[in-house]
Structures are given as structure tokens and as C-alpha cells.
Amino acid sequence: MPLNPKQLADEINKALDVRDKDGKLPPTTTEMELYATAVVTTLQTSLAFFPPNTVTGTANAPGAPVLDLAAMNGTFLPPIIPTTWLTIMVGIGGNPALIVKEATASTLYIQSAAKLTFDQGTLQGVSTATPTSPGNLIAGGTGGYIDGLNGSDWAKQVLFPGADLKTTEKVFNAVSKYIRNNAIITFPPASVIGVFASPGSPLTAGTAVSGIIT
User: Fold this and answer.
1) How far, in Å, CA of 204 to CA of 165, rounded?
2) pLDDT in the model for residue 103
3) Of 2, 21, 52, 127, most Cβ neighbours within 10 A?
4) What is the pTM of this model?
5) What are the phi and psi torsion angles at 205 (to 5°)?
6) Domain enclosing residue 187, as ranges
7) Which residue intervals of 50-119 are DSSP H helices?
8) What is the total count of domains within the chain?
9) Can you say whether the dihedral through the CA atoms of 45, 50, 56, 61 is positive or negative?
């Protein structure tokens, strides 16, 4: 399921688990919804990138599907910066310096900790290699995900004086889990490439550029 700010705000609200006198969760706040929008919009305006040799696979017969394509240790390129995050968070009010600190720390953390991944079978492509001539991988696909984010680590990066660590961890555990379970990475056809020496050979220089995050 693609990322949705309202759903993420609801997950943050559930994680905080602050109940009214009747034991019910209150509605999500404007602040929660703005924060969730900042997270989701920042990711959805970023591009996924798998550096050379992070896409793997084995060539079949010329023109036949490459069945074992996979990719790991992807990142964001260009790197995520806090501009979009801050533009949205202006509406939340509060201390501007703390908002800048949190946005900067969060985007740096996502950039450094996130591991973009495509499990085997989620990328589809063919090899043009023949028994007498090397060839190329031409591929694309959808179903990649963002792994590697940890709520406790994230909370420590953004914690400001006077804030409660356990409460902050609840928020970022919810955000990390939501991103892992819902973000979808897609590479258009022919944006996943590499070289095969011959049928049966492993992919070399496998890379993927300009992946879309939804």
C-alpha cells in the first residue's frame, strides 16, 4: 500500500496511546498530520538509486527473462535534504530552531540508515548476451521497499532538551515501521541496467537509477 499521510498520522496517534477519560484515542492532531505529510512528501519527492554492483542476477538465453534479479543496499540520489520537510513544517508553529534541527537530523538519518531493497523476483528484465557476444540487462519493476530505519536510533538523532526519549521513540518506531510496510519503490522499464558476459554469467555493474517512491 503506498504511503499516505493520514494513515501515518493515525499510526503515530496509536503509538502514543494517549487515551481520554473513556479510554478512547482522541482524533489525530493537526501537528501529527503535518508531521506525517512532511515525512511522506519528502520520501515521495526523492529518487531511489542502486549504485553499480548492487543489482544482481544471472543471464539466461538471449532475450529470455532473467529470473533471479534482486537489488540491495540502495539509497537516495540526489541525497535527501530537509527543504520539503521544512516547507511543510512551517505550519506547525513552535520554535523554528527546533523544527530546523529535527528536520535536518531526520533527513540525515533517513539518508544514512535507509537500505532500499528489491527481493528476488520483483524486478523483471531480459539479457541480450549471446554465446559469442556480451550483452546488456534491460529491466525495471516494482515492489521495492525501504528497510534499515530504527525508531530508537532515529529518536536519539532528533531528541531535543526537555523531550522524553521514550515518547520520542514511540513516534519514530511507528514511523519506521510504517515506511517499511508501505513505501513502494518502482523502476520504470530500462532503468535497471548492467552487463552480462554470456548466457549463464552473473551480472556485472548492475545499477538502477531514478526509482519512484510511492
Assistant:
1) 45
2) 96
3) 127
4) 0.94
5) 60, 30
6) 5-213
7) 83-89, 96-113
8) 1
9) positive
